[in-house]
Design goal:
Elements (H helix, E strand, L loop, with lengths): L1 E4 L5 H9 L3 E4 L6 H7 L5 E4 L7 H4 L9 E4 L9 H6 L3 E3 L6 H16 L2 H9 L17 E5 L3 H12 L3 E5 L11 E2 L3 H6 L3 E4 L13 H6 L4 E5 L8 H9 L3 E6 L23 E3 L8 H21 L20 E8 L4 H11 L3 E10 L2 E9 L3 H9 L4 E6 L2
Helix pairs in contact: 1-11, 5-7
Bound molecules: 1,4-dihydronicotinamide adenine dinucleotide.
């Protein structure tokens, strides 16, 4: 197996894949479509981060014919045409919660900093002003934290905030288990009316565009704090500025913006610049060395397991299957169009060849079906050729 890793993924990923027997080429930059198309020839596993685009044209090109898996060494997979990858039988993996803890720790740091008015004290000190006043400074213990979006990040924040003595409530559009003593709110308004601090951790679905604007800010408690570390387009920054200027909100911490500079040299433009009680950070919620290392290990581990034994646990696009490995069997991994009768046809081929099935697992997801079959035979290659010729077959791999 040959792996091509782009965009300077963590060295632990290289080590892990090499230990699994992959020949790894690691580059520290992204490649454009023409460069990548040439580089893909003979590559089975491709690792990228957010700067490499994988459009349908690239995934369908003849040089991508050997590709079996893509690892997105990041959270998002918008840069990949996942539907085309699926149609070609290419598994896609990402790292959905490798940086969860990093985001949570930044949120907690900001909650404490804003509650103690550290941003203003710090600015005063740098301007030579010594102001020891306690006015407006609070402990976070006993304060009411309202979490909007109780997914990986929201739930983890809930646990750590309670450990600091905060009273946690949350609102989520999906049914979620309330952890610890957290209280579930039935509506967003209920949460806004009962929180000293509101923090957004919703996902980036298009319906969340502009979900937090003037109406929601007005429904918050006077003197409360607001945080957004989720997605920039979720919040109306003009309305937020107005609420900070008027004093309705005591402060805010914003890590994500509707438009963000694409590179280091580009100027950061925002209505929120210049406000002493607003913490602005350049989308670094998940940017820690620990998170990068975890992403490297996590995604490389998923690629290794898929290549070696067909395991698709946590895949972005394929059914999630994990069949325990048997030392004495060959394993077939068969991806097919999800239409009735495919499993019967596969097993019919095996029966014709008088091959015993030692273990089998099938899963379907949308238009794709995936079946792992452990078989006892001395001539698996003949079977592979026959399974490849079935009209429903997308890809067959003989794994051992
Ligand atoms: P997740 O998918 O585990 O959780 C999102 C939760 O929000 C889900 O429970 C969902 O049901 C809920 N939700 C969606 N729309 C909602 C709405 N309108 N009202 C209430 N609940 C709603 O996602 P995860 O991993 O917790 O990430 C949360 C956000 O943080 C994402 O937008 C992600 O892009 C962002 N993020 C930001 C980082 C940064 O560097 N600042 C780093 C990592 C993630």
């Amino acid at each position: 197996m040959r792996a091509l890793l782009l965009e300077n993924v963590h060295p632990d990923a290289v080590t892990l894949l090499e230990r699994a027997g992959c020949e790894v080429q690691a580059l520290d930059r992204a490649l454009d479509e023409a460069e990548l198309s040439a580089a893909l020839d003979g590559v089975h596993v491709l690792g990228i981060r957010s700067k490499t685009e994988l459009p349908a044209s690239l995934l369908s090109s003849p040089t991508a014919r050997d590709l079996v898996a893509i690892g997105a060494f990041c959270i998002g997979t918008n840069q990949i045409d996942v539907a085309t990858a699926t149609n070609k039988g290419v598994a896609v993996f990402n790292a959905p919660f490798s940086n969860t803890r990093s985001v949570v720790e930044l949120a907690l740091a900001e909650i404490i900093a804003l509650t103690r008015r550290l941003t203003e004290k710090n600015a005063d000190m740098h301007a030579g002003v010594w102001d020891k006043s306690a006015t407006g400074a609070h402990e976070v213990r006993g304060r009411r934290l309202g979490i909007v979006g109780y997914g990986n990040i929201g739930a983890q924040l809930s646990v750590l905030a309670e450990a600091l003595g905060m009273t946690v409530s949350f609102y989520d559009t999906a049914d979620k288990l309330a952890l610890g003593n957290a209280r579930r709110c039935q509506t967003l308004d209920e949460l806004l009316a009962s929180s000293d601090i509101v923090t957004l951790h919703v996902d980036g679905r298009s319906g969340n565009s502009g979900m937090f604007g003037a109406e929601q800010f007005d429904a918050m408690q006077p003197g409360s704090l607001f945080l957004n570390l989720s997605r920039g387009f979720v919040v109306d920054h003009t309305a937020l500025r107005r609420c900070i200027d008027s004093g309705h909100l005591a402060g805010a911490a914003i890590d994500v913006f509707p438009t963000e500079p694409r590179s280091r040299g580009e100027e950061f433009e925002s209505q929120l610049r210049g406000l002493p009680n607003v913490i602005l950070t350049p989308h670094i919620g998940g940017s820690t060395e620990e998170a990068q290392q975890d992403i490297g290990r996590y995604v490389a581990g998923k690629l290794r397991d898929f290549v070696a034994d067909g395991t698709t646990t946590m895949s972005v696009n394929l059914p999630h299957l994990a069949l325990p490995q048997r030392a004495d069997a060959h394993r077939l991994a068969h991806l097919h169009h999800n239409v009735p009768g495919v499993l019967a046809r596969i097993n019919g081929v095996l029966a014709e060849h008088k091959v015993n099935i030692e273990g089998q697992l099938l899963g379907t997801r949308g238009d794709i079906g995936y079946v792992l079959t452990d078989i006892a035979t001395d001539d698996p290659d003949a079977l592979v050729a026959e399974l490849e010729s079935l009209e429903e077959t997308v890809r067959v791999r003989l794994l051992s």
